[in-house]
3-demethylubiquinone-9 3-methyltransferase
Amino acid sequence: MNKITPCLWFDTQAEDAAQFYTSVFPDSQILEVSRYGDAGPGPAGQAMTVSFELANSRYVALNGGPVFTFNEAISFQVDCASQEEVDYFWNTLSDGGEEGQCGWLKDRFGVSWQVIPSALPTLLADPDPGRATRAMQAMLGMRKLDIAEMQQAADAPQPAG
């Protein structure tokens, strides 16, 4: 069990969100669903909380009503080893949601994600500041991150000067 478990506040979509997320990520499952009873405050039978694991990390989704909504102040980073992984997570998580800049997106539930290739931190930390700058400039012009395009930008020869 996690010492710290993120709790995601949904209006009424906690169970749908947990089912969606566990279908997207390997090594994921719904662990437990507790439902509102006749005492409320939600409709009897509606999920109150849904405990689930994503890639072996535990989360709780809560149907707490429309009082709070998600914003980019909290996001989840998805570390991707390949462009195929970037494409899969980007396309799946953004379906019905909203694409942002630089690998950021909001899913159909309003939760923010960063779909980041493992190569990005290496490119941005390149000991050659010119390479790192060119990779950063390429990234800033993208929505879904393209590893080959960032690498090509980093490797681009610079005019003598």
Remarks:
- The domain at 70-161 is CATH 3.10.180.10 (2,3-Dihydroxybiphenyl 1,2-Dioxygenase; domain 1).
- The mean pLDDT is 95.
- The first strand starts at residue 7 and ends at 10.
